[in-house]
Amino acid sequence: MGESRAALLAWVNDLLQLNYTKIEQLGTGAAYCQILDSIYGDVPLPKVKFEAKQEYEYLNNFKILQAAFIKHKIDKSIAMEKLCKCRFQDNLDFLQWFKRFYDDCEPAGYDPVRRRQSTLSNGTLSPSIRSRGSITPSYQTKTPDRSNSRTGRNGALKSGSSTRFTPSSEHLAMVEDLRHQVAEMQSQMETLERERDFYYNKLRMVEELAGQDINPEESAASIVRTLHSVLYGTEDGFVGPDDVDQKFAEMHLQEYDDDDMEDETF
């Protein structure tokens, strides 16, 4: 049985000098990359997005981790699609394996803050994973001076305060175009899903027909017609076979009908 989540979180925070509060936060992949870096010291941390907020950024981190696994011939598959969903159980299982792997390697001393500083874009990590007071002053951003801002009786900001951003017509047009593209892609995805289910059902029906006991008295043409009704059958929203395919199928049906007639003659 693996270690508890509390013990694992304490280990990660102590090793990397971070303040993770939930196992799910490791789903960004950044911590896994640095744990491996603490063992080998050659993970390209500048490419790791420690402040990742989107799933595609999480995937980027896991791809870096996978490349490092391949480089060091680590025989362990990484379920990136599951881990980046930030679900508890998936990340708990992976972290338990990582802890065992780390203990087996027995790495030397490691300075996580120094290794991580070169990756920061604005000098600070996100609040959920901020280092324990170890970021150097040269990497810390300053708090904006708001002394010139004044508030009137009605709560409105006067001179010296920042004004609200108003999007231009060009920006609005871009947003509308993106919305249209998203709607179009969603429609295409729904169509593809329907087609997938449609053809899967056809394969399942053919498989069921193939598994049935064949009646010796049933003609070959009858069997072919049954398969034909399955393969060329349509549903609402789907277009039937074109004229060429339909004529080709009818020719084969006619051949089987002719063969049956010859058999009856003999």
Largest sheet: none
How much is the radius of gyration in Å? 32 Å
- Count of domains: 2
Topology as a string of helices (H) and strands (E): HHHHHHHHH
CATH superfamily of the largest domain: Calponin-like domain
Structural class: mainly alpha
Q: What distance separates the N and C termini?
A: 74 Å
Main location: cytoplasm
Keywords: Cell cycle, Cell division, Coiled coil, Cytoplasm, Cytoskeleton, Microtubule, Mitosis
GO molecular function: microtubule plus-end binding
Domain EB1 C-terminal: 167-240
Can you tell me about this structure?
- Keywords: Cell cycle, Cell division, Coiled coil, Cytoplasm, Cytoskeleton, Microtubule, Mitosis.
- Pfam families: CH, EB1.
- Residues 118-142, 159-168 have a biased composition (Polar residues).
- It is found in: Cytoplasm, Cytoskeleton.
- By secondary structure, the protein is mainly α.
- Helix content is 55%, strand content 0%.
- It contains 9 helices and no strands.
- It has helices at residues 5-16, 30-40, 55-71, 80-83, 88-105, 112-117, 169-211, 220-231, 243-265.
- Helix 2 (30-40) packs parallel to helix 5 and helix 8 packs antiparallel against helix 9 (243-265).
- It is elongated and about 85 Å long.
- The protein starts with a helix and ends with a helix.
- Mean pLDDT is 77; it is low at 133-161.
Write the layout of secondary structure elements.
Blueprint: H1 5-16, H2 30-40, H3 55-71, H4 80-83, H5 88-105, H6 112-117, H7 169-211, H8 220-231, H9 243-265
Helix pairs in contact: 2-3, 2-5, 8-9
